[in-house]
Amino acid sequence: METDRRIRRLSERQTFDRAELHRLLDEQLVGHLAATHHGAPIVVPMAFARVGDAVLLHGSTGGGFALRAAAERTPVAFAVTSLDAIVVARSLYDHSMNYRSAMIYGVLEEVADEASALDLLSEKLLPGRKAEVRENTRKELAATRVLRLALDDVVMKMRAAGAGEAEDDGEDHSTWAGIVPLAQSWGDPVASVLTPAGTPVPDSVRALKTATAYPPRL
User: Fold this and answer.
1) How far apart are CA 118 and CA 114, in angstroms?
2) Domain residue ranges in the chain
3) Fewer CB atoms inside 10 A, N or C side of the chain?
4) pLDDT digits (tens, 9 = 90+) for 31-59
């Protein structure tokens, strides 16, 4: 029986725009995987990357609950959220947030070519870094698992608007109202203790510094 994924509260905020979904997933680096483990709910943060019409989740052989969910084909949910702005209104009740959120439902699949999948994840998290470091060892590859979750069953909700107001709303319009956009950027790189003094900062790291990690969405 097909599940009804329609949003009922503030249903006008639900969007079926695939481009909006892809933009959200391409901008964010971490999502939260929800599953059932030994009869109890569990939610864990996981790095991910969108590749086509699926997301790849970065895990390890020690993360048994995700692997068990994949092996047993247990349904899971994966949530990704971006807070884009605080909405400042003329009453506390009317304050809000501008946001984009997506919930992906499905069954996890193990990836056959994990080495290539890891390369894709690396390129999402730190573009260009693979060319600057050594290859993964067999032991490292054996300890890592990449799981795939198709974007076949997704619910996305978003708000991208200002404070609710009208000329005849009875509020004191001399009280400030508006939005405060949120933007996050990378800080200055800090070398490790064992990195020799004067070692140049690699191109991949310098590129992060010059880019906005999470640009504001007005």
Assistant:
1) 6
2) 11-214
3) N
4) 999 988 778 888 989 999 999 999 999 87
